Amino acid sequence: MKFNLLIIIIVFNLESCLGQNDKNLISNWNTHPIPTNPDSLRKYGFSLQEWAVYEKNDSVFVVDKKELPYPQLPFKIKVKKADSRDFLGRASILNVDNGYLVGFYRGEWGGALYWVSSDGKNYYKISNHEIVQFINRGGKQYAIEGLAHLGMSEGSIIEIYKSNDRWAVSEHLKLPTAPEAIALDSQGNFIIITSKSLLRVDRNAQISFLVDKGLWYAALYPNSMVIRNNIMYAGMRAGVYHYDLITRKDSWLLPY
Length: 256
Known about the structure:
Strand order of the largest sheet: 1-19-18-17-16
CATH topology: Methylamine Dehydrogenase, Chain H
Number of domains: 1
Structural class: mainly beta
């Protein structure tokens, strides 16, 4: 009995040590002041490393962007030739009551939003929006869409809703610059990182600038966001941006 108990204790301690050494846990990354030196920012801008964040089992993980776990449809869609270009690019997927909303983002080459049936046999185009990310709030479906390219940066939040048993869209709010990622804070406000800024959008569609011009502007390309315990983490080139939604203090997280 004592021997078995000793084995359990050893295994537990070993697992604890392994967890503490797991560099994929953002809690094991190191905190640095926000870089302001032009040479440091230039170096980060030329980095080949793109970090992305995601949440799993109540923990925040950071991985290479290429390893970010994206949702997949459980079938292959038989696409008509006329629609084949729309189905290229990065796909975002949202499971809805009668199938899936699927958004495609192709950068300067455009994008599209489609509904796809639960078995993948039927689909129709909803709009030409360049969908960056879906989000659900209070049973309503939203998405951020837009593009930053060659000095142009624009986008919006759209609401996706059913009208006469077909999905349709309307603009919820025009954004000042192109959105890159979105999440909900503890009050149900949208927190959005754009190509330039960090925004809070309340339930009345009023925008507050948390950060007007972030260190990522025009160089570090945010790609993902997680909010955990009132802390916002945004994955981007070279590192992870950390912002406390309560104190409004920020920092720069690196694996070293």
